[in-house]
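$ fold --in a.seq
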Amino acid sequence: MRSIPIDDLLNVAIDGGFNALQATIVNIRELKQYLSDDNGTDTFIVQCFLTHFDLDGPLNQVITKKCLFCNRSIRDNNGFNECTEAECRMKLLEQTNDENLSTKEVFSLNVHLTDHTGTITNVKLGDDVARKILKCSVDEFILMTDEQKTKLKWTYLLEKLRFGIQIKNNSNYAKPIVRIACLFPREYLPSSIDDEQS
């Protein structure tokens, strides 16, 4: 197990529910092995390159709708916005008599992470971390030109980054969910991406 200086960890010790002090430092191969062993929920720190970050692609692959009340995903049901959480939907219908639920637009991207040991695909980058990384709101992002989105993408694409990763089992999915829980500031990166891999 590799270590990060304690001062670096304390600067982002708890960010968005990610506790860096309890995370294990791994490379991509080790992270994929952990997933294949089906070990359940855990937290990791991985230093890697962002190799797929499609900010300038179709908007529906960057932004999604969520229920304003329970924060669950929204699906289109014959032109009506419908919350995927049955209890929430039932409760709202009883209170409002309205099938159109209030929604909010949030960032929701799938990214790929790569280091010298391999690539892991379909890593979730959710709204809270995306807003911090992109330094903009969803509304501001929607107003950007394609050129501005491409420039923003290349600020991070193929750059050396250190992420806090959470793996969670979810009964609604066959495979565990791998999500980026935080981004460590660039000043906490060693001079070489291989410094911690040896």
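$ fold --in b.seq
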Amino acid sequence: MNIIEIKTEEQLEEVLPVLQQLRTTLTKEEARVLFRRMKEEHYQLFSLMNENGEAVSLAGVAVGTNFYNNKHVFVYDLVTAETYRSKGYGETLLSYIERWGKEQGCKCIALTSSMQRVDAHRFYERAKYKKVSYSFWKELK
């Protein structure tokens, strides 16, 4: 197993099928445009690759600072390819992100998870993450 940072649009295209298992409406073109913009805003995408060089798990993160969390890692995307789930790959990648966050001087990791993603909630709870707040969302028209 090898963890790499996805830095180019070509690399993004290779791992996109895994990302689309989480972001199901994301098209290839939308992914390219957003990836460029997100990288400008310090988003980083990491991929856990198997021995065959295939993406198994992805974690999209950014380091930020605010009054609530101080300097922290925010996990925007965390997904393991369906055929590889429940085999420890997501845990391996999340542990890597935790170590990486410490190296960046972060105090904690924060993330949100959709209400219906009960399996994901159990995953985070097993990894000792705590439910600390509700996340609210409103479309701006």
